[in-house]
Amino acid sequence: MIRLIAPAIALLLSLSSLGQEKQKQIITLNDGSRLSGIIVSDTLDILQLRILGSQTLMVNKSDVLTIKPFENAVQTLSKTKGYYIHFTTSVLAGKNDLGNAYDMSFHLSNGYQLANGLRLGIGSGIERLGIPVIPLYADINYHPINSRISPYIYLKSGYGFALLDQDDQYSYYNEPISDSKGGLIFNTGAGIAMYTWQKAAVTIGVGYRYQRVTIFRSNYWWGGSSITEYETTFNRIELQLGFVFR
C-alpha cells in the first residue's frame, strides 16, 4: 500500500510546484510605463526580466517604482462556474479469497460547475473487479470554499455493466463463464483540488467504493449440464489521482 501511495504523493507535489514557482510580476517604472515578466536575476542595481520566451530585459532598479505579482483576471477557482472534464485514475484496495487485492480504475466525467460550489455531471470508464466492468454514473461534487486550493466531497452513483473476459470464459482451472451481470455502483469520498494552472487542476482523494457483480458458470458432464450463479459484493478503499480541465 505504501509503495502505491508514495509515488502518487510525489507526483502530486511536483505538479503543484510547477504551477507556483517563478511567479510573473508587474513592474511599474517611474515614468508610469509597465513591464510584465518573470524576474530571473535581482542584484543591487539591476533587475533582469524575462519578458517573452527566452528574451530578457535589463532594468535599472532606480527606475523602478513598484513590483507587484501579476494578477490573472481569468484565474479559475474551485467555484468558477462553467463546463468541466475530470479524468481520474484510482487504485481500489481490499481483500478477496486469496488475500490483499489491488484493482485499477479509470474514469472520465463531464458536466457543469455551479457558482454555489455544487458540480453536477455524468461519467463512465473501465475497471476490473474480478471481471471487466464498464461503469455509468451520476457524478456530484461540492466545494465549500472558493479558492485555488479547495477541499471537496464527491458522490458517484449508477450502474456497472459487467463484461465477459475471454480468458475467464475458457479457464482450465474453473468452469467457463457463460454470462455476467453488473450491479449498483456507490462511490463516495473527499479530496483536495489544486488549480495550479489557469484552467486546470490536480485532484487527490480517498474514498469508499461499492460494486456488485454476478457471474454464471456452466458445468458440463456426461449426463447433462447446469449453471451456477456466483454473486460477489466488492467493498474497496479508493486512492484517487486526477486532473480537472475547465
Description:
This protein is mainly beta and 246 residues long. The protein folds into 2 domains: 23-69, SH3 type barrels (Roll), CATH 2.30.30.100; 75-245, Porin (Beta Barrel). 9% of the residues lie in helices and 66% in strands. It has helices at residues 2-18, 166-169; strands at 25-29, 34-42, 46-52, 55-60, 64-69, 82-96, 99-113, 118-129, 131-142, 149-162, 177-181, 183-194, 200-221, 224-245. Strand 7 (99-113) and strand 8 (118-129) form a beta hairpin. The protein is elongated.
In short:
The protein is mostly beta strands. 9% of the residues lie in helices and 66% in strands.
Helix and strand arrangement:
Blueprint: H1 2-18, E1 25-29, E2 34-42, E3 46-52, E4 55-60, E5 64-69, E6 82-96, E7 99-113, E8 118-129, E9 131-142, E10 149-162, H2 166-169, E11 177-181, E12 183-194, E13 200-221, E14 224-245
Antiparallel strand pairs: 1-2, 1-5, 2-3, 3-4, 6-7, 6-14, 7-8, 8-9, 9-10, 10-12, 11-13, 12-13, 13-14
Q: Biggest sheet, open or closed, and with what strands and sense?
A: 8 strands, antiparallel, barrel
Q: Find the count of extended strands (DSSP E, 2+ residues).
A: 14
Give the SSE order as H and E letters.
HEEEEEEEEEEHEEEE
Number of domains: 2
Mean pLDDT: 81
| CATH topology tier name of the largest domain | Porin
Category from helices, strands and their pairing: mainly beta
Shape: elongated
- N-end to C-end Cα span: 32 Å
With strands numbered from the N-terminus, the spatial order across the biggest sheet is: 6-7-8-9-10-12-13-14
Helical content (DSSP H or I, runs of 4+):
under 10%
CATH architecture of the largest domain: Beta Barrel
What amount of the residues lies in strands? Answer: over 45%
Q: Identify low-pLDDT runs.
A: 15-21, 169-173
User: How many individual helices?
Assistant: 2
The CATH C-level class name of the largest domain:
Mainly Beta
